[in-house]
Specification:
This protein is of the alpha/beta class and 228 residues long. It has six helices and five strands; from the N terminus they run ααβαβαββααβ. The N terminus is likely disordered.
Amino acid sequence: MTPRILLLSALSSAALLAGCATATGPQVDQTTATPLDAWGKEVKVLAQPQDIRLAPHDTGLSTNQSNALEGFVGNWLDAEGREIVVRAPDTGPSARGANRVAWDARDRLLSLGVPAGRIRMQAYDGGDDPRAPVVVSFNRYVVETPKCGTWRNMSHSNDNRVYDNFGCAVTSNLAQQVANPEDLIEPRDMPLGDAQNRTTMFDKFRKGEATGSARDEVAKAAVSQVVN
């Protein structure tokens, strides 16, 4: 057999094998890089507003309200929250007292260590409500993971594909272990270290003292409750 015939025979055999591989090989999903990536799209991050409501006072922030804000800031730190919004009515009978409480609340937040750039002041229509409150809020984020459970015989696959729930449990577990689900939306800026606070915390730890902030019972009020 001449070299030309041998070459043509080899090319024909290669083409035949390629055709067989295309016809019977596994079909690759081009929409995702790997089967694991598809489950990442099923993870949902949801915002849950956390707030306290402060009754308006012409004399400004009360002692109870000041204590409530301290507990609120503790919850904000635990949740690794970002922006805190202070909303006060700019119309209606309570506008004057609410405005005073709102700015006092901002000063209180600053004194508790909240950076000025993390506080946003807003106004809303209080209508005719003489007790329209000042609302101080931030968003706490929670993660909603895909539900796994559609299992079949994982040792049997006629088409050489992964089984239906491949990667679901891994993705779900990883998503639930993220300390702050908001990080799944966008990364945070790297803050500068607070050497003074670190020294204080280590000193308390060595003495066996509590290193966390005391939680005020007033701060556990439901959204419908107003702190006087």
